[in-house]
């Protein structure tokens, strides 16, 4: 016979086991829920341009007698939504690969300031077109270990955002500072700023302070999630501070020569 102690032991083992199993499952369930949300959001984001493309295609096909101007307008919508979709698919693929650990960093040793110079040059004309001054200042970091293309991608995301959210006449600055153990990359702007209640959410996937404006500017809401992944995969940190009357500052710290070997295999 079991006896009272044995019975109590069995009951405790049963419920304790369930409790522990639930506890062990919690992070898995959380990841699973996040993935489901991601797929749902991604499908929704893809459906919007598809609907616009279909509607305008029907207009073109159904109105052959319509003026050239209108036909061109409809085709223009189809073109810009097609572009949006391909950016969106590229960004989604990046994050899907990152999630499944299939994204591999291609590590080399390169000049960080030179890489930034190459990245900034094409963005200068985008800033100039909007009458925004782009001010650059780079310390020399000739031998930085990391993935050059991804560091460039991170820089483009931050600069592109800064230019988009700054009014004509404003300033966007990019600074690279060499510190004892890390490189500090600062992208700041004199733009509209980010309201405090949104600040901690802007790195979330698809999060946008003003969804329709982001869409109108070709945004996917995934840029900062990608920027964060790139920073983290270099063992770095990314921080944001913002003031509605002054603008926004993104600070990226990247350790020098301390790249995690596992992430780079
Ligand atoms: P998006 O494709 O919309 O730019 P991101 O992930 O790059 O997506 O940015 C998320 C949101 O963060 C943007 O929609 C915008 O609301 C806000 N944001 C990012 N950078 C800035 C900035 N420099 N100034 C003001 N708001 C910004």
What does this structure look like?
The chain is of the alpha+beta class and 265 residues long. Helices cover 57% and strands 17% of the residues. The chain contains 8 helices and 7 strands, in the order H-H-E-H-E-E-H-E-E-H-H-H-E-E-H. It has a 5-stranded mixed beta sheet with strand order 2-4-5-7-6, covered by helices on one side. A hairpin with a 3-residue loop joins strand 6 and strand 7. The longest helix has 60 residues, at 3-62. The termini are far apart. The structure holds adenosine-5'-diphosphate.
Quick structural gist:
The protein is built from 8 helices and 7 strands. The protein has helices at 3-62, 68-99, 112-129, 148-164, 196-199, 211-216, 223-233, 261-264; strands at residues 108-110, 133-138, 144-146, 171-178, 182-189, 237-243, 247-255. The model is unreliable at 259-265 (pLDDT under 50).
What is the global morphology? globular
Distance between the termini: 58 Å
Q: Strand order, main sheet: write it out.
A: 2-4-5-7-6
The assigned structural class equals: alpha+beta
Bound small molecules, by name, code or SMILES, are: adenosine-5'-diphosphate
User: Proportion of β residues?
Assistant: 15-25%
One letter per element, helices H and strands E, the order comes to HHEHEEHEEHHHEEH
- The strand count comes to 7
Radius of gyration, CA atoms, in whole angstroms: 24 Å
Mean residue pLDDT: 91
Q: How much helical structure, as a percent, in the residues?
A: 55-70%
Tally of helical segments: 8
Please outline the major beta sheet.
Answer: 5 strands, mixed
Subcellular location: Membrane
Protein name: histidine kinase
Keywords: Kinase, Membrane, Phosphoprotein, Transferase, Transmembrane, Transmembrane helix, Two-component regulatory system
Domain Histidine kinase: 41-258
């Amino acid at each position: 016979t079991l006896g009272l102690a044995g019975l109590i032991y069995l009951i405790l083992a049963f419920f304790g086991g369930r409790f522990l199993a639930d506890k062990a499952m919690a992070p898995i369930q959380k990841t699973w829920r996040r993935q489901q949300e991601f797929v749902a959001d991604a499908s929704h984001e893809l459906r919007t341009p598809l609907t616009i493309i279909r509607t305008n295609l029907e207009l073109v096909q159904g109105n052959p007698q319509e003026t050239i101007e209108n036909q061109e307008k409809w085709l223009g919508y189809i073109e810009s939504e097609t572009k949006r979709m391909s950016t969106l698919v590229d960004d989604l693929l990046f994050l899907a690969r990152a999630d499944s650990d299939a994204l591999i960093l291609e590590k080399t040793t390169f000049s960080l300031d030179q890489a930034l110079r190459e990245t900034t040059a094409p963005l200068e004309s985008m800033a100039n077109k909007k009458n925004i001054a782009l001010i650059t200042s780079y310390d020399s970091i000739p031998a930085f270990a990391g993935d050059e293309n991804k560091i460039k991608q991170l820089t483009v995301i931050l600069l592109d955002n800064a230019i988009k959210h700054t009014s004509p006449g404003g300033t966007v600055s990019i600074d690279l500072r060499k510190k004892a153990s890390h490189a500090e990359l600062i992208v700041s702007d004199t733009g509209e700023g980010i309201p405090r209640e949104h600040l901690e959410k802007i790195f979330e996937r698809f999060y946008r302070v003003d969804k329709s404006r982001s869409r109108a500017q070709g945004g996917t809401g995934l840029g900062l999630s990608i920027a964060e992944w790139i920073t983290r995969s270099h063992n770095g940190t990314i921080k944001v501070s913002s003031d509605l009357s002054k603008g926004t500052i993104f600070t990226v710290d990247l350790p020098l020569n301390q790249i995690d070997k596992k992430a780079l295999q």
